[in-house]
Amino acid sequence: MKPVPAAPRRRRKRLDLTPWLFLAPAIMFFLVYVVVPIGQSISISFLEWDGLGEKKWIGLQNYQDLLKDEAFYVSLKNNLIWLVLYLLAIPAGLFLALFLNQTVTGMRLYKSLFFFPFVISNVVVGLIFSWFYTPDFGLMPKIIGFFTGEEIAVLANESLATYGIVAAGLWPQIAYCMILYLTGLNSINPELVEAARLDDAKGFKMLWYVILPQLRPATFIALVVTVIGALRSFDLVAIMTVGGPWGSSRVLSYFMFEQSLSEYGTSMGYGAAIAVVLFAIMLVFITMFIVRMIIQERTA
Amino acid sequence: MAKVKLSGIRKSFGQSEVIKGIDLEIPAGSFCAFVGPSGCGKSTLLRMIAGLEDITHGSLEIGGQEMIDVAPAKRGVAMVFQSYALYPHMTVAENVTFGLRMANHPKRDTEQRCLEAARMLKLEELLDRKPSQLSGGQRQRVAIGRAIVRNPDVFLFDEPLSNLDAALRVEMRAEITRLHAKLDATMLYVTHDQVEAMTMADMIVVLDKGMIEQVGSPLGLYHEPNTLFVARFIGSPRMNTFSVNLCDAGDGNVSCMLPGGSSIQLDGSSLRTGKATFGIRPEHLDVVADGHLQGKAVLCERLGSETMLHVDIGLADPITVKADGLTNVTEGDAVGLKLNPKACHLFGPDDRRVRSGSLQ
Amino acid sequence: MFPTPIERTQPRTRFAYKVFLPIALILWLLPLLGVALTSVKPAADLDSGNYFGAPSRIAIENYWLVFKNSNIGYYFWNSIKVTVPSVLVSIGLSLLAGFALATYSFRSNLIIFFMIVAGNYVPYQILAIPVRDLPININLYDTTLGLALTHIAFQTGFCTLFMRNFIKALPNALIESARVEGVSEWRIFCYIVVPLVRPAIAALSVLIFTFVWNEYFWATIMSQSVDVRPVTAGINELSGEWKARWELISAASILTAAPPVLMFFLMQKHFIAGLALGATKG
What we know:
The structure holds 3 protein chains of 3 kinds.
Chain A: H1 13-44, E1 47-48, E2 56-57, H2 61-68, H3 70-86, H4 89-100, H5 107-119, H6 122-133, H7 140-148, H8 161-186, H9 190-198, H10 203-214, H11 216-232, H12 235-240, H13 252-261, H14 268-299
Antiparallel strand pairs in A: 1-2
Chain B: E1 4-13, E2 16-26, E3 31-35, H1 42-50, E4 57-62, E5 65-66, E6 77-80, H2 92-102, H3 107-120, H4 136-148, E7 154-158, H5 166-183, E8 186-191, H6 194-200, E9 203-208, E10 211-216, H7 218-223, H8 228-233, E11 240-250, E12 253-257, E13 263-267, E14 274-280, E15 285-288, E16 293-302, E17 306-312, E18 319-324, E19 334-339, E20 345-347, E21 353-355
Parallel strand pairs in B: 3-8, 3-9, 6-7, 7-8
Antiparallel strand pairs in B: 1-2, 1-4, 4-5, 9-10, 11-12, 11-14, 12-13, 14-20, 15-19, 16-17, 16-19, 17-18, 20-21
Chain C: H1 11-28, H2 30-39, H3 43-47, H4 61-69, H5 72-103, H6 109-121, H7 125-137, H8 144-169, H9 172-180, H10 185-196, H11 198-214, H12 217-222, H13 231-242, H14 246-266, H15 268-277
């Protein structure tokens, strides 16, 4: 092959600058509200600072204190409980979606009503469940009482409070996963299902070998939003128990809020250190998810 | 009307080079078809001419002007996309005139051109419809209309008929040919369908793996393919090919050892001895009682006007024979095949032609 | 369709399904129904221990009392003042950014895109201290604008992700064809992309409205005064004040939930399509 003389090639500048003009406003916001604050928070975590006065560099002191703080371990344990139990939303959502994936008259309305909890603010969900759990007024103690003969105030019980809150959180989360699976089920090629029927696949085998592989995108999204949602949980704890009783239902996000952002919280450095730990934990998951998305994007 | 000249054109996507040095001159006013199997780089080449893909290396001239650094819109080209690329939210008229309106072209002339194009393409009744209300053929015509109103020097077609059904494709083929005659513009046409290329183009460029295999007129490619690839790509059903041994028969002749033991003497081969690939088109084989080749008919496709016989002559694949529509050969019959020496092609070990069977 | 359509099953199964469906729904919404019921009970019912029975009469006045006894009217108005501009601006910004990320291939395209995706999943606590200080420094703390800017910043990330995917799914030939015709990039954006992404805009509007309206964390830490506090932060405060007046708390809860619910029912198709498409709310 004979060498080709290199023609002079100038790049077309017009197309090179345009995307940045379109991106500029969004990127500005992103830098100011996300990228820079992350850096700032990390640096605050090395300070002793009440938010107003003098900033004092104390190195890793906040982290060392954290390791000695029992509240930190309680929060960490509760975050783990959240994470594990929250994952139940995925199979539960799938189950509901399968239950509702029918074309009976009025089905659309049923689906919407089942989806309802997701549309409602967490604040309202928290209040609803607070009522649900309240002794005397609420339904839950009555139900428990009916079975055990003893009415239990779930949210006032140190060992049950977190589970009570997680249950409240599962309610909208299951609805969310359900809708993801419903749309996923909708987009499965019906011919594929028919072909599998001709191959005599049915029931659970059909679900496992044919349907679930087709639902993988939905499952992935459900997994992402559930894991992230579990670790970010804040609203329900703040509303239902304010971390109590005696701090037993704290999670990292709420612990941080207590330390730095609430009315009495003035330990910015300590709070920032908690936030950094939470961020580090979530970063593991975020990285896993992003890597998987990048692989998908590349192969698409 | 403008000449298009490509010199040393190359294109890489990251590590892989998809266009590997193309030199080509397309005379003004010609209808030039790029054909090749999928992935041969024909669409990429067209998109590079349009300016939608950067050219990694080389030079591109349209009408004698270097175009490498010129924006797509300023190249004097108009493109018709495979998917038609009609804007779904605009009516036919709006679609056709969109480019002119965006360029603030005088309103009167815009309307004028739109009506003219509509008349030419029989779209007058449809100007107020949305693309979703049109049939495939109508959409195709709108896409062509959108190209016409721009009065381009060069029309670029990217597999424009591949989304149409067979009957409509034949109709549109004729229509585009007619348009070419009327508009007197240079047209570059990408297709994977060699029939389309043969019927419409006056110049065909066969591409494979990012390189030009051969440039020529439709009949030139059919009768004198330079390579085995072109020989098998042009013509339908495709040319039968099998390997043979050659030995020098003196007087400028070679003798080919055919499968089944018989041999045929051919003149004019530049290769005299050794292995070669023998090629003969299905239409140049005659069914006789006792021919050069003996075999058994394994499949008879009766098309009415002709019958395609698939004859097993002991090779891995049966060879195809185009026989008379009324032939009484049936499956399982023993068949003898006679070769027309003037129609026998030979290709050397590098797959390049050593003898053409141009019937001359 | 999977599972087997119920019309094709045995009559007995079909009957069981039709009976069980409403029961399941009632069980599913039991907490909500309980609250709705409580919200229309006269206070006397609760005082006399009628917690679960039918209300002795429908006490619509609870809703009126909520407005009269609290600042919830202000809170509602504050929520609207924050939500509407947040929706408009974040969608506008994301249209621009999504267009850039979907149609141009420049070297850092994917990096920026995945940075934005990742930013979407970050816990708010790692941002909270600096982000709360930001408006303090420019005198926007405890203002509607300060809160709205925060929402815009976080929702724009999600919207951009959504828009980018939506625009990417449009046939590329539409944009290329316009480029060959010499249409400027800005006009391609205005005349081709924006009209074609209308469904995405509709879907995002409902979604973002719901997200911003329902948001609680930023609402509490970025607002204090009665003229700024959105309803989510406000109602939680009220529930503390009203302690055991469950009929009032319930009524206020229903009121707070109403706008997104209404929005959802009005634009249900867009809402669900939106979730399916973007589907990455954190």
